[in-house]
Every structure is written in C-alpha cells, then in structure tokens.
Amino acid sequence: MYQEYLNRRKKLFAQMAPESATLIFAAAENNKNFDYNFQYRQDKNFFYFTGFNEPQALFILIKRHNNNQCIIFNQKKNTNNKQWFGSNLGQKSALKKLYVNYSYTWNDIENRLYLILNYLHVVYYAIGLNEKYDKIFFLTLEKLRLKSKKNKKFCAPKRILDWRLFVYKMRLIKSKQEIYFIQKACDISILAHIRAIKFCQPKRYEYELVAEIHHEFLRNGCLTNSYNTIVGSGENSCILHYTKNNKKMKNGELVLIDAGCEYCNYTSDITRTIPVNGIFLKEQRIIYHIVLDMLNLALKLFKPNIKIKIINIQVIQLLLSKLKSIGLINGTINQLMHTKIYKKFFMHRLCHWIGLSVHDCEYMPCNDNTILKPGMTLAVEPGIYIPKNNNIPFLYRGIGIRIEENIVITSKGNKIFTQNLIKTPNEIEKLMRKPI
Ligand code: GLY
Ligand code: MN
Ligand code: MN
C-alpha cells in the first residue's frame, strides 16, 4: 500500500517548481465540550500523501537541488498520555512507517520550519483552511524575512502558491486501490440499505431505520459515515439534507434513505426511496419510474470524453417530457428548458465526484464543461421533489424521490459500484414482503 503514497508524492514533486516546498497540515481536532473532542477525522489531502491518521502533524515535500525529500512533524511518542488515549507513532517509527527522510516533533516547528524553508523560491500552501496553521505559516515566513535583513545566510521564499489545484487534479483520477476501497464502502452500504428496507414498516420512527443502517456499517468495520444519514418520510423526503430523522413513519408515505459509510477513508453515497408499508401508491410509482428512467438514461451516457453538459441536457429533456405527459407542467420542451422550470422539481445537480470526501475534489469543477475521463468516480442522483401547492394535483403533492448510484468511468463506459442494490418498484416490494 505504501507504494501508492510514494507514487502520489512523486507525481506532486514532478509538478513543483525547482527549489520549492509543499506544506500540508493534518486536520486539527475539534472540541465538543470542555475537555472532550469530536471523533477525529483526518484531512483528506494529508491522508492522500501519508496514510497517517494522527492530529498535530505537518507533512512537507521539499525539492531542493533536484533532490526530493519528505519531512514530517508529528506528536512526540506518547505525549498525549498513553494511559488516557493509547499510543501514538512518534518520530522513530514515523521514519519507517511513513517513508519520510526526517521526522521531528510537532513542538519543534517553531525552531525548525524556517530553516527548512530557507532560500527556497516557492512555497505551496493552502491558505485559509485553518487559522492556527495559517498563523504558524505566516510567522515562519516573517521570521525568515526579518533574519534575512540582518544576515545573508537567510532568505525567505518570494512566492506562495496553492497546492490544491495540483492535488485535486491528481485526486480526481482514482487508482485501482482507491476503486477497490470505494467498492468495499458501497458493498457495506448496500447491506445497510437492504437491512433498513426490510425493517421498514408503518409506526416505526425514521431513527429506527438509521439504527439499522449504522448497525450494519459498524459490524462491518466502518466506524464513520460519509455524511449525516438522511431518513426522510412523507414530506421530509423533499428536504434535501434532512437529518432530524425523528418522525414516525406513516402508512401510505414514502421514505427516502440516503446513507453511505466510509471504508478506509473512502466514501459511498447511496439513496433509495421506498414505500413505508411495502406497496407503492399509483402516483408514487409513476414519479418513481420517471426518476428511474432519468437514472437509467444517465447511466447509459456516463462514459469517457463526454461533457457532463450533454448528459444533463438529455436527462432534463426526459424529465420535462415525462412531467408534461402527466400534466404537472405545460409548454414546449424548448420553452421549458429555457425557463428552467425543472428546478422547481429537480433543484440539485445530477452528479458529483466521490472519493476520499463525499463531495470530492471541490476545487475541480463537476459541471457542464467537465469532460469525463477513465478513473473518475461519481455519485449519480436524479430526483423529483414535488412541492405541496394548489397547482399540483392533490395525490402528487409532497412526493420526494431520489435514486442514487455510485460509478467509475471506465475506458468503454462506466461500472456501477452499487449495481447489486435493488431499485425497481417490483424488486423493492418483493424484498419488503420477505420476513426479516
Ligand atoms: N448525501 C449527500 C449527497 O447525496 O450529495
Ligand atoms: Mn446522497
Ligand atoms: Mn450524492
């Protein structure tokens, strides 16, 4: 596995200017209450180059005199009190396990960082991610500037550039190993969805489905979700990021389940919408089939060298013609495209990147002009959310349906990570008839 991290470092070195350094901090801990922190989540960029999951660490790539070196500042062995928090890596093991040339203690940053950056031309740093780390960075540069005024042995870098553009571009194309981790995350999330679908029935609470889902995540070794689990029944199915999950589910309602776990830090992001009592009503089934048709069309179109715009247009044209055919909108397709009326029913994007983060590589656009390439991984998530207003026929009001699949672009088309999770109304009804 470590070869992966070394390959990534090599690729980044190749893009760095001569006489430069890249600085990437680990995520800071977040305080929950007084002396207690939230569960720690590593910064995904830091992880991408190190595979290291401890806080209070700074990873540095240095390109000097055509010689590439890696340095880590990390916590001193057991400074964090082994009795209370268990053991940590320390400096000696960091050299072997993280394949770095030097390992210094976190508390040594002030004394050493300015020397490491001395006489370099360029520093790559992502400003604004963390105030405390920005302060360390700018104080270090200031120290070097002040010293250089008095002593020719010192000179501060003149240019600061952001590493995010390089790094996100790299993260956009996944390796075989990364694709394997995403598949594992999807496989476990599929088990969780099946468990929740089977457990669902009227008079149970939304959070009872959350419990089933998280149970399956945890028993499979996934201690973290990719995002806060969404279980929205009835009108809550129309709230895109609904996370209260505390309503009693009623006979005749739909429930939208959007849940995914992380496996080895890689995410999955799956949505299914099911009838609470196991049988779709006529209007629910009609809308469901429109969303399913949108999804199936999109899945046919996701392939290399196609612009996302082309896919979006075709999927939205399909949506418009179907909504027209059931009388929810009127006008010609051209007019309707122009007025963007579909946004009243489908107000989010059709797709987004997935990977180490659920909305991965936020610096790399996943929009109309993006051209797809093999190795890109995406969530594809058409949906229809029907407002409760008087212009809408009564039985359609408040229906919210989303179906979300995860895919990887291959050389010929795409592979669906979530293929094994049922999604037609008949399959869902059949599964819900089975005893738990
Ligand atoms: N669950 C977040 C999303 O679907 O984008
Ligand atoms: Mn989702
Ligand atoms: Mn999504």
TrEMBL record:
<keyword id="KW-0378">Hydrolase</keyword>
<dbReference type="InterPro" id="IPR036005">
    <property type="entry name" value="Creatinase/aminopeptidase-like"/>
</dbReference>
<dbReference type="InterPro" id="IPR029149">
    <property type="entry name" value="Creatin/AminoP/Spt16_N"/>
</dbReference>
<keyword id="KW-0464">Manganese</keyword>
<keyword id="KW-0482">Metalloprotease</keyword>
<dbReference type="GO" id="GO:0070006">
    <property type="term" value="F:metalloaminopeptidase activity"/>
</dbReference>
<dbReference type="GO" id="GO:0006508">
    <property type="term" value="P:proteolysis"/>
</dbReference>
<dbReference type="Pfam" id="PF05195">
    <property type="entry name" value="AMP_N"/>
</dbReference>
<feature type="domain" description="Aminopeptidase P N-terminal">
    <location>
        <begin position="2"/>
        <end position="134"/>
    </location>
</feature>
<keyword id="KW-0645">Protease</keyword>
<dbReference type="GO" id="GO:0005829">
    <property type="term" value="C:cytosol"/>
</dbReference>
<keyword id="KW-0031">Aminopeptidase</keyword>
<dbReference type="GO" id="GO:0030145">
    <property type="term" value="F:manganese ion binding"/>
</dbReference>
<comment type="similarity">
    <text>Belongs to the peptidase M24B family.</text>
</comment>
<dbReference type="InterPro" id="IPR052433">
    <property type="entry name" value="X-Pro_dipept-like"/>
</dbReference>
<dbReference type="Pfam" id="PF00557">
    <property type="entry name" value="Peptidase_M24"/>
</dbReference>
<protein>
    <recommendedName>
        <fullName>Xaa-Pro aminopeptidase</fullName>
        <ecNumber>3.4.11.9</ecNumber>
    </recommendedName>
</protein>
<dbReference type="InterPro" id="IPR007865">
    <property type="entry name" value="Aminopep_P_N"/>
</dbReference>
<keyword id="KW-0479">Metal-binding</keyword>
<dbReference type="InterPro" id="IPR000994">
    <property type="entry name" value="Pept_M24"/>
</dbReference>
